[in-house]
Amino acid sequence: MGDHYPTVRLAAAQASPVFLDRERSTEKAVALIAEAAQQKAQLIAFGEAWLPGYPWWIYLGSPMYSAPFTQQLYANAVKIPSNTITQLCDAARENQIYVVMGLTELSGGSLYLAQITIAPSGELIGHRRKLKPTHAERTIWGEGDGSDLFVLPTDLGQVGSLNCWEHLQPLTRYAMNCFNEQIHIAAWPAFCLYTGSLYSFSGEASVAISRSYALETQTFVIHVGGLCDQATLDLLADDDEKRRLLRVGGGISQVIDPNGETIVGPLGDNEEGILIADCEMSKIPAAKMANDPAGHYARADVTQLLLNRGPRRPVVFKDPEFQSLAPDRLHGNIADDDDSAEVQQSN
Fold first, then answer.
1. If we measure between CA atoms, which residue out of 294, 113, 293 comes closest to residue 187?
2. What is the Cα–Cα distance from 212 to 52, expressed in whole angstroms?
3. Pairing label, strands 43-45, 98-107
4. Which of the residues 130, 137, 166, 178 is marked catalytic?
5. Virtual CA dihedral for 118, 122, 123, 125, nearest 10 degrees?
6. Which of 120, 122, 286, 343 could cysteine-pair with 89, CB 3.0–4.6 Å?
């Protein structure tokens, strides 16, 4: 009797948050979680920085223009733990579903682009930060560290997540590959910025990136993004130039299988809804037989990756009495519990 490979039902939530409103966005997220569970989904994923919204203003104007919006983001960012996290955990437990949420996290005086994973038990089992915010994002979010690369063992399979252009980092992709990931959440913002003028920001380019990730890692990829709604556009675009740079819509969510094929989706450009995909996990070992870059297809005698998973903390308390003051975060487990591990990188 060999291993049984189940069919797993995954969901992508393509929706706009209530922009820069943490409480109302959380209420909307709870409703979407319940809706996905009613459709028998076992996991639902949200886009990058979904709670309480992606900071589009960083690409639209000067620091003086941006400052009021950044202040609102600070006021509506999510602390971990907090009542917001409790509401999301309660929704996961009440609906018996895994939830992967993208959010702006407030820790101390700094903001981070985070992803959290909640189990059907209502337990927060994973918390990571984007390792390197992209371009103008660095004016908003701080950096993560090596401990933010992990996968989570769940009863659905090995679940991992990354944000946006983290998927363009070859060494990050390879590190995720070595963890034997099976279900991957590729979280993106809406593709409503610089439409037609910068191809690398387009939905088509992003799907190509997620598709290549699925092929390279032999995972099911939930390619999920949000939407920019009319209220967000009206708030941010106060002149013709900004209205030229930002638009309503930008959705292209879909689910991609380990062979790089889209099996469900995409949802329409301005279509708000939940995308449901039934994923046959037997496709993973079939793909691995042909291509396993961190295993039989590797050439460790030629190229290797040195991976440091140790957390980087700005303050280390030497006095045990004060060590409890140091912030602590949840991270997933991998096979090697050492702070650093050498893994192979194929050429």
1. 113
2. 29
3. parallel
4. 130
5. -10
6. 122
End-to-end CA distance of the chain: 36
130 among known catalytic residues = yes
pTM over 0.90: yes
202-217 pLDDT, tens digit per residue, is 999 999 999 999 999 9
d(CA 97, CA 8): 12
Q: Is 135 exposed, middle or buried (0-12, 13-18, 19+ CB in 10 A)?
A: exposed
- The question of whether 48 is a catalytic residue gets the answer yes
Q: Which residue has the tokens 């094929």?
A: 261
- Structural domains in the chain plus CATH codes: 7-290 (3.60.110.10)
Strand ranges, E, within 38-87: 43-45
Looking at residue 339, what is its pLDDT? Answer: 38
Q: Catalytic pick from 89, 137, 164, 279?
A: 164
Instruction: Name the nearest CA neighbour of 313 among 171, 98, 145.
Output: 145
> What interhelical angle do 170-178 and 203-217 show, nearest 10?
40
Cα Rg of the chain (Å, integer): 20
The Cα–Cα gap between 343 and 65 comes to: 45
63, containing H or E segment: helix 63-76
- Cβ neighbours around 269 below 10 Å, total: 17
- In the residue annotation, 89 being an active-site residue is answered as no
Q: Is the bond preceding 52 in cis, omega lying within 30 degrees of 0?
A: yes
Q: Which of 1, 284, 253 is nearest to 157 (CA)?
A: 284
- pLDDT range class, residue 327, cuts 50, 70, 90: low
Q: Rounded to whole angstroms, how far apart are CA atoms 100 and 117?
A: 4
Whole-Å CA distances, 9 to 49, 112, 238, 276, 285:
24, 30, 42, 7, 18
CA–chain centroid gap for 138, Å, is 17
* Gap between the Cα atoms of 138 and 131, Å rounded: 11
